[in-house]
Amino acid sequence: MSDHLSQDQFVKCAIGQSSRVELEHLHECRKCNAELDRFVNTLSLFGKAVRHRVDDRVARHPLRITPMRPAAPRIPIWSWAVVTTAFVVLATFPLFMTEYVPKQAGQHAATEANPDEIMERVNRHLSRVIPAPMEPMMSLIPEELVGRSGGVQ
Amino acid sequence: MKTSTTSGFITTNMQNPALEFEDFDRVVELYRTRVLRFLFASVRDIDLAETLTQDCFWNAYRSRRLFRGDCSVHTWLMRIAINLVRNHVQNRRFQFWKKAERVDSREIHDWPDGSISPEQRAAVNEQVQAVWEATKTLSERQRTVFLLRFLEDLDILEISHSTGLTESAVNVHLFRAVRHIRKRVGNSK
What we know:
The structure holds 2 protein chains of 2 kinds. Chain A has helices at about 5-15, 20-30, 30-60, 75-95, 105-115, 115-125. Chain A is mainly α. The longest helix of chain A is centred in the first third of the chain and has 31 residues, at about 30-60. Chain A is rod-shaped, with a radius of gyration of 45 Å. The model of chain A has no long low-confidence stretch (mean pLDDT about 75). Chain B is mostly helical. In chain B, about 65% of the residues lie in helices and about 5% in strands. Chain B has 8 helices and 2 strands; from the N terminus they run E-E-H-H-H-H-H-H-H-H. Chain B has a two-stranded antiparallel sheet. The longest helix of chain B is centred in the middle third of the chain and has 22 residues, at about 75-95. At the A-B interface, helix 1 and helix 3 of A face helix 1, helix 2, helix 5 and helix 8 of B.
């Protein structure tokens, strides 16, 4: 054995698990004995300090325990997580359901910048034979009927 | 038939253990301070410790019929308190935005004892503060075992009953906790 107790031997002594060898050393070595006393005393003081703190609290705040009254039910944290996730999913759902059609912004702006193009668009709009919403239906009407008297035109 | 344990005034009616809870006010009166003390040192927040103490007695009252009398009332209450601390620690992992500690360590060592000199008082305060800070860095299990041993003065068998650990596991946790505290307290000198 070295001159003094090792850390582990010291800790064993502090928690009352010392072997005969360590006890003998403590009996002979004043330094280790004093250090152990100091450490055990520190732990004891810690216990006293916490006791004092709580005793003081209990004295200042008399018995508040009412066993017949249940504590307010707590909502577990995971249920909040589930609710939040559900909310986020529901809130973002419409975004995924709507088809995103990217606008060709550059092309559109270039077209509008040209007065001839604008005039052509206006003319096309004015010369339409049927309202714009009905234009898709034109594909359903046979070619020969289009333009005939009493026909679509 | 009554039995007593090393931790003092605890008695258990072995024929009908649930009778221990007939006078529940008495149970609360006897054990409130000890439960509060353990919870305070565990969660380091006196208001939260009060709330958990209330929860502890409420849980005990609700499940008093399940008390079989195979351990003392105090051990049984400590077991409930340990579970509450464990739940609190698990919940707090998700509540990282909350302040972890609401106790100023100066509160812990405000000594009423006027018999010691200011110098001695300062030295004592420093030591106590070092241990208090060191317990914060222990794992939850090590802290529980340490507090039950050095704050509640429970023996290894009682700690084993309270925590559900084997006696050898309790010894290992206690050894590691004290070694850690020894290092931290040594470093703070």
